[in-house]
């Protein structure tokens, strides 16, 4: 009997302890308004997590747990409405590197950092207004589906949107149509082969398109980026660029990064001269790493270029050889023509002479 009651006590203690563990609390050292929580396994629809949060908490930051729970991947598979409500509907959320596959944007959320996940879906139910001003989706290499980007077009209060390293190939036609407050847009390290500037919002002040496959930067009279100050086009496939047309499109431009493109030396010189004339910087003096070139790069007038920048490519050699062959052919032609003429002249002269001697 004694044994049974002690087993019973053990069971009760175990259940109570588990209940307590299930109610998740802010980690020691959390700030007053920012609660730091360990990530845990969360599958939507399977369980409803319970938290014990101070009433003043407005922001939640998830971090990896310090000691790994055995058998747990600590994956929050989806940041959905249920989880958001259970967290007392925070205004700011930071959930990074948690293999999250989908996020549902809640109307009151103002700041969201979901970078370095595996997001394929951004759920933005229509017919609602969204407070979201800052959205970081960098390093979500599965965010290819154009509809995920189309959904972002409903977040009309966005001021900052980070979509770098997301394998983006095309930008949906109407994606930025209603994002009239968007000031910072980063689309670096994607697979963009072309860009339509007319699609972009006029409110942009910073635009990053570096490390893509852009072969041209098509400025047109229709495209207007009147507030753009900082434009980064480094590391694309640009062979030329019209600075005058660019400045017509973006008259406020102050920093324009153009290095690491396959520009020939005279072309680059003309671009840099024009930028100098217009007081537009082409590297950021405040960022020391901006002046450090990589291993296979050369430094030229403050710009990093591929190390074959000073070398001639085989196409250049081919052009030179063709020119040389052409010249030789021309000279040969002239020489041949000359000898023929000379012979004719001689013959004519000779025959005249012989004719004269005849009688
Ligand atoms: C777009 O948002 C709708 C509404 O929330 C959702 O049903 C759909 O799955 C989302 N699509 C993508 C690809 O994110
Ligand atoms: C959303 O609003 C549009 C018009 O504003 C309406 O046609 C549509 O039926 C609404 N959809 C829902 C799901 O309420």
In words, what does this structure look like?
It is elongated, with a radius of gyration of 34 Å. The protein has a 10-stranded parallel β-sheet with strand order 2-4-6-8-10-11-12-13-14-15, with no helix packed on it. The protein has a 3-stranded parallel β-sheet with strand order 5-7-9. The protein contains 6 helices and 17 strands. The relative contact order is 0.05. The longest helix has 44 residues, at 314-357. With 359 residues, it is an alpha/beta fold. It has helices at residues 2-22, 81-86, 146-152, 243-249, 265-277, 314-357, and strands at residues 23-25, 34-38, 50-52, 59-63, 78-79, 92-94, 102-104, 111-113, 121-123, 134-136, 160-162, 184-186, 206-208, 230-232, 255-257, 297-300, 303-306. The chain folds into 2 domains: 16-306, Ribonuclease Inhibitor (Leucine-rich repeat, LRR (right-handed beta-alpha superhelix), Alpha-Beta Horseshoe); 312-349. Helix content is 27%, strand content 16%. One 2-acetamido-2-deoxy-beta-D-glucopyranose (NAG) is lined by residues 121-125, 145, 147-148, 151. Residues 126-127 line the site of one 2-acetamido-2-deoxy-beta-D-glucopyranose.
């Amino acid at each position: 009997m004694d044994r049974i009651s002690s087993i019973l006590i053990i069971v009760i203690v175990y259940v109570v302890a588990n209940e307590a563990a299930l109610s998740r609390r802010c980690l020691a050292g959390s700030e007053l308004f920012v609660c730091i929580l360990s990530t845990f396994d969360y599958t939507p629809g399977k369980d409803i997590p319970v938290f014990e949060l101070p009433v003043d908490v407005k922001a939640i930051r998830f971090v990896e747990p310090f000691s790994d729970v055995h058998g747990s991947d600590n994956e929050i598979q989806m940041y959905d409405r249920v989880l958001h409500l259970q967290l007392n509907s925070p205004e700011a959320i930071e959930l990074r590197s948690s293999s999250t596959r989908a996020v549902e944007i809640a109307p009151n959320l103002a700041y969201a950092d979901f970078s370095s996940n595996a997001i394929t879906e951004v759920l933005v139910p229509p017919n609602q207004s969204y407070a979201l001003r800052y959205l970081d989706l960098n390093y979500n290499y599965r965010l290819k589906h154009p509809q995920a980007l189309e959904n972002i077009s409903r977040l009309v209060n966005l001021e900052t949107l980070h979509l770098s390293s997301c394998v983006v190939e095309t930008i949906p036609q109407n994606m930025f149509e209603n994002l009239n407050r968007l000031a910072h847009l980063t689309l670096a390290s994607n697979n963009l082969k072309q860009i339509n500037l007319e699609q972009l919002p006029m409110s942009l002040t910073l635009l990053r398109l570096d490390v893509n496959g852009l072969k041209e930067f098509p400025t047109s009279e229709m495209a207007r980026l009147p507030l753009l100050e900082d434009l980064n086009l480094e590391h694309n496939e640009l062979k030329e660029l019209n600075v005058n047309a660019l400045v017509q499109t973006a008259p406020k431009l102050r920093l324009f990064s153009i290095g690491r493109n396959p520009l020939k030396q005279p072309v680059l010189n003309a671009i840099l001269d024009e930028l100098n004339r217009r007081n537009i910087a082409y590297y950021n003096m405040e960022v020391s790493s901006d002046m450090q070139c990589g291993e296979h790069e050369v430094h030229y007038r403050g710009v990093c270029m591929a190390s074959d920048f000073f070398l001639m490519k085989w196409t250049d050699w081919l052009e030179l050889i063709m020119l040389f062959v052409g010249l030789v052919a021309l000279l040969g032609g002239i020489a041949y023509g000359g000898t023929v003429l000379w012979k004719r002249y001689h013959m004519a002269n000779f025959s005249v002479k012989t004719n004269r001697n005849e009688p």
